[in-house]
Hints:
Layout: H1 3-12, H2 21-35, H3 41-80
Helix pairs in contact: 2-3
Amino acid sequence: MNKHEVLALMLTAKPLYASEWESLLLIYAERLARVAPKLTEDDLRQLVAVGAAIHQCRCQHASAEREASALLLRMRGRLEG
């Protein structure tokens, strides 16, 4: 299977797990730990970097949600006041 086939599978597959970021990262870490002994050091490093990217996206998402909530509250206050 080549990278394009794997990507197509990833984009069309139904997620097996809850989509909450913390759960996703934990599941990824558990699965990676299972296959880690079979990976080269470079492959493991790259897959860990993918986990780090997932974590960074989660943090950015949470920050954006907080900022959006604060903005909505300010806008509502202006409309009501």
